[in-house]
Design goal:
The protein is an all-alpha fold. Helix content is 76%, strand content 0%. The chain has one domain. The chain has 7 helices and no strands. The mean pLDDT is 81.
Length: 179
């Protein structure tokens, strides 16, 4: 009985993770115009600052332990919001990549595949880092690095720009404003 219950819970958890990675929202994103109003802004410099271990060390050295824990919790909550925004944007870029894979031009199809795989990878990292950030909110003294997620989002944005450059060269600057 306990084994059956455990297997059902594990299966539901795996299903939930797969649905999360897939993006859940079935909004069609065929073109750049479809992204307008759907994406959330991500300030990569601010995000990178929030998750920078050197910044943690600086704050730890210049604040009382109680103050540091309070500030660190606020910083981690802000980082969670950035992670949520990157995962949200990646879901729509995943749709854009899927649409591009159906294009008859092999360069567009390959760029779409690259974008799609990068978006899936970013969503997986976002899930893992979100869990570790919750741990860090509970235990603010813990040391974890999240720079890889920022780099992956930057890479994903570059791939989206590359796809846009192939399909709509005049609209590349608009894409970076959306992400």
């Amino acid at each position: 009985m306990i084994l059956s219950f455990t297997l059902i819970v594990v299966a539901l958890a795996i299903l939930g993770v797969l649905l999360y990675l897939e993006g859940g929202n079935r909004s069609s994103v065929e073109q750049l115009e479809d992204l307008k109003g759907l994406t959330r802004p991500v300030d990569l410099d601010a995000f990178r600052n929030l998750v920078d271990p050197a910044e943690d060390d600086f704050l730890r050295a210049n604040m009382l332990p109680r103050q540091f824990r309070a500030v660190q919790r606020q910083r981690m909550r802000a980082a969670l919001e950035y992670i949520g925004n990157t995962a949200h944007n990646a879901a729509f870029l995943l749709r854009m990549g899927e649409a591009a894979t159906r294009n008859s031009d092999p360069r567009v199809a390959q760029a779409g595949k690259d974008l799609m795989y990068s978006a899936l990878r970013l969503r997986a990292y976002a899930l893992l880092y979100s869990i570790s950030l919750y741990v860090r909110i509970i235990f603010p003294q813990s040391r974890l690095s999240y720079g890889e997620l920022v780099d992956n989002y930057q890479h994903l944005s570059a791939l989206a720009s590359q796809l846009c450059l192939i399909q709509h060269p005049s609209q590349v600057s608009r894409l970076s404003a959306l992400l």
